[in-house]
Amino acid sequence: MVTKNKKGEIFDKKFKRISEILENNLSENLAMVIYTEILELLKVTDPIKKLSSWLDDKKRMAAINFDTIFDVGLKKILVLHFLNRDKDVMKLFEPSIGGPLVSLAHKARLLYAIGLISKTALSDFENIHKIRNEFAHSSEPSFEKDKIIKLVSKLSTAKNSEVTKNNSFDLFMNTLDICAQYIKQAINKELEMQKISNTVKKRNK
Question: What is the CATH number of domain 67-204?
Answer without folding.
Answer: 1.20.120
